[in-house]
Design a protein that fits this description.
Layout: H1 2-10, H2 23-39, H3 50-64, E1 71-79, E2 85-93, H4 95-116, E3 124-125, E4 157-158, H5 166-196, H6 201-204, H7 211-215, H8 217-223, H9 231-238, H10 243-264, H11 272-302, H12 310-318, H13 322-357
Antiparallel strand pairs: 1-2, 3-4
Helix pairs in contact: 1-2, 2-3, 2-13, 4-5, 4-13, 5-13, 9-11, 10-11
Length: 358
Amino acid sequence: MKERFSRLLLGEDMSGGGKGVSTAAAISNAITNLYATVFGSCHRLEPLPVEKRSMWRREMDCLLSVCDYILEFFPSKDILPDGTAREVMATRPRPDIYVNLPALEKLDDMLLEILDGFQKTEFWYLNDKGHKDSSDDSAPCRPASHRGEERWWLPVPCVTKLGLTESARRDLRQKHDCASQIHKAAMAINNGILAEIKIPDSYTQTLPKCGRASVGDAIYRHMSFPGKFAPEYLLDCLEISSEHEALEAADRVEAAMHVWRRKANHGHSRSPWSAVKDLMESDKNVMLASRAQDVLLCLKQRFPGLSQTTLDASKIQNNKDVGQAILESYSRVLESLAYTIVTCIDDVLFADESTTKI
């Protein structure tokens, strides 16, 4: 613990020369690194080992304890022994921490509870047992995976030729739905926190002068069409097939969104005609910015495992608010864990469906 907090105080600069990162960035990195240490190899549906669970609880309690001292003052009344009332300034947790931190801790407990529910399963993983295929219906079948060669290093689940029992299948689907809801909740909290973090000047300086140049002519024509806008249809037309392409599109759309927002917020201090013209242009920029936000949200929903956009990474790196850094990193790692559980359950259900098709 002394080493952990020393690194936080030094800003990860072991030379002590004061060239380290900010406290907010240091705590954010600490939570991210702790998650990678504890859950980095969590690619199977099984309870978390006792030592890793203990490490996660112990070190997260220390990191989250910082939030106990992030307070705000508010006017209150203090009653003296003689009955006299006097006004004093009392303290309470900052609203964003008071609302979001208990919710994240509850989601954390629920995810570990889901993993604890896989102590006895009707499936196993390819490297767990040296089973061989045979003509017996009760014998294990060959493993099936829908990932292909995309993530060849991940363990492949196996089930018997008869497949899972109905109760096991129902239990898996319930856990899948629960993990999906947790993923959506963590994502919503993370998006809310990121939206509150100030956009760094280093990012705004790199924005293009024209939003159309950022998204390209094809996307711009869809977004500027005066009729009803459907972001799902636009993404279907783009035929994005990989997370790399999705992240590239998200970066371009997000940059254009902020260009249009900046133009819409631009003041009107010109002649009357110019002011009217700017107002009309501003309305168009508002529409384009709103549609860009819809496309960005649709992209994140279609690719739930999408990496951080350039803006998100820039916000996290330059953020100085310790409370926001804790909430953002905590929600981000829980979002990642929930998504991992969902994909692992999908793998097992796919293996089970493959047996019924044989």
